[in-house]
């Protein structure tokens, strides 16, 4: 049970009343309350500290002042404050770091601009609420995940950050915390970008931001671009699978590698979306992420799968089930070469960088990258960019890991 006492630190009138909360030898914090008093109405006291007696003025209101109406009101206010502080302490212990900053934050919570929160954690909810109609479910999920991480960061460091605190020093502390907790460099960079987006939105709403916010830079490190080559796709086509759900996953995987669409789109494909145009079969649909109306050609590989299924696409399944099953398919197809990459650890909730067998690194995103990587020497880049949705050639080249030297050699063919 903590002890809570009040004290003043000056003989000048009015004197601010401070509160001190202590429990054992680990917790000892103080902060100024919103109350003040004439020092003549405060008892002086003595306490022992390091073998010496020190004047602390920690005894409280004088008996004479308590007979006055103003004294009674102040006493009631202080007793009420003490009760509420104790309740707040009980709710915070084991959840937050109890220190003077925690106490100051409780006494003087961040002010708001016309109801807009200035605390970084609180602004995430404000941002999601007011951007909900513009955000995709996946984006909202990521934002909530970053918010939870910031809450853990605040708890461990014992700090409550305002939007205006997000500057170079915040970035260094946040990176150090994430590295300590085994987050990869690129994951940390993405989280910082999310936090900056939150802060920029707050600035647009009139919230004060740190002078160094604009200068915060993050760098995405190159990672091994995993895709399935034509030879590997052939192995996947030919492998014998004795379970229907794996055959179903295999067909979806092949379709994704020849259409280059996101998992949120290709798992919704239906035969009704196919339009016959001359000798071509065009699949028309609207992308979930971008809202863009698309029309993409279905090649002979895809049409062979549809013919096998009497004109239908494979049975629809969940993203998670699909991800689990295509790993099994690729393992059965012998994709066991050890390569560098990153994979999600379900136990830790983190992406881990290391060397793994290729089938372990296969995920729903591999189809889009496989189309871009396999066809970029066979099909004009603008056509592939239309299918993958990349807006610039630089973005497309970075996506498939195409170097500047490779681009130069490709251009040299036309300048002999």
Topology:
Blueprint: E1 3-7, E2 15-23, E3 27-37, E4 42-43, E5 46-49, E6 52-55, E7 60-61, H1 63-66, H2 69-92, H3 100-107, H4 120-131, H5 137-157, H6 168-180, H7 185-204, H8 230-238, H9 244-259, H10 263-266, E8 274-277, E9 280-286, E10 293-297, H11 300-308, H12 319-332, E11 338-345, E12 350-357, H13 358-361, H14 366-375, H15 381-388, H16 393-400, H17 404-412
Antiparallel strand pairs: 1-2, 2-3, 4-7, 5-6, 8-9, 9-10, 11-12
Helix pairs in contact: 4-5, 4-7, 9-12, 9-14
What can you tell me about this protein's structure?
This protein is an alpha+beta fold. Helices cover 46% and strands 17% of the residues. The strands form 5 sheets. Strands 1-2-3 form a 3-stranded antiparallel sheet. Strand 11 and strand 12 (350-357) form a beta hairpin. The chain starts with a strand and ends with a helix. The longest helix has 24 residues, at 69-92. It has 3 domains: 3-107, no CATH class; 120-215; 230-412, Intergrase catalytic core (hpI Integrase, Chain A), CATH 1.10.443.10. It contains 17 helices and 12 strands.
């Amino acid at each position: 049970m903590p002890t809570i006492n009040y004290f003043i630190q000056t003989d000048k009138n009015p004197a601010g009343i401070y509160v001190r909360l202590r429990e054992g030898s680990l917790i000892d914090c103080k902060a100024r309350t919103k109350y003040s008093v004439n020092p003549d109405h405060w008892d002086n006291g003595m306490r022992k500290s390091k073998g010496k007696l020190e004047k602390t003025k920690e005894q409280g209101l004088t008996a004479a002042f308590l007979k006055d109406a103003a004294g009674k009101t102040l006493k009631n206010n202080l007793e009420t404050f003490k009760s509420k502080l104790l309740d707040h302490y009980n709710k915070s212990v084991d959840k937050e770091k109890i220190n003077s900053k925690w106490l100051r934050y409780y006494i003087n919570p961040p002010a708001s601009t016309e109801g807009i929160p200035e605390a970084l954690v609180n602004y995430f909810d404000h941002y999601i609420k007011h951007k909900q109609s513009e955000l995709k479910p996946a984006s909202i999920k990521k934002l909530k995940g970053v918010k939870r991480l910031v809450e853990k960061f605040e708890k461990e460091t014992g700090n409550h950050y305002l939007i205006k605190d997000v500057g170079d020093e915040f970035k260094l502390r946040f990176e150090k915390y994430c590295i300590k907790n085994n987050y990869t460099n690129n994951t940390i960079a993405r989280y910082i970008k999310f936090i900056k987006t939150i802060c920029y939105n707050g600035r647009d709403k009139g919230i004060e931001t740190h002078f160094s916010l604009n200068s915060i830079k993050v760098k995405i490190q190159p990672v091994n671009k995993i895709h399935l080559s034509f030879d590997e796709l052939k192995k996947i086509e030919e492998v014998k699978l004795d379970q229907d759900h794996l055959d179903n996953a295999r067909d979806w995987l092949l379709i994704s590698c020849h259409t280059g669409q996101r998992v949120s789109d290709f798992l919704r494909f239906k035969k009704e979306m196919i339009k016959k145009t001359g000798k071509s079969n065009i699949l028309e649909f609207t992308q979930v992420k971008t809202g863009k109306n698309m029309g993409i050609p279905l090649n002979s590989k895809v049409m062979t799968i549809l013919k096998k299924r009497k004109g239908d696409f494979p049975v629809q399944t969940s993203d998670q089930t699909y991800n689990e099953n295509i790993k099994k398919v690729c393992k059965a197809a012998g994709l066991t070469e050890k390569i560098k990459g990153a994979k999600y650890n379900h136990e830790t909730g983190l992406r881990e960088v290391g060397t793994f067998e290729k089938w372990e690194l296969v995920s729903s995103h591999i189809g889009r990258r496989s189309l871009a990587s396999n066809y970029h020497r066979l099909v004009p880049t603008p056509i592939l960019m239309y299918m993958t949705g990349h807006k610039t050639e630089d973005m497309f080249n970075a996506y498939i890991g195409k170097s500047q030297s490779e681009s130069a050699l490709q251009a040299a063919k036309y300048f002999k």
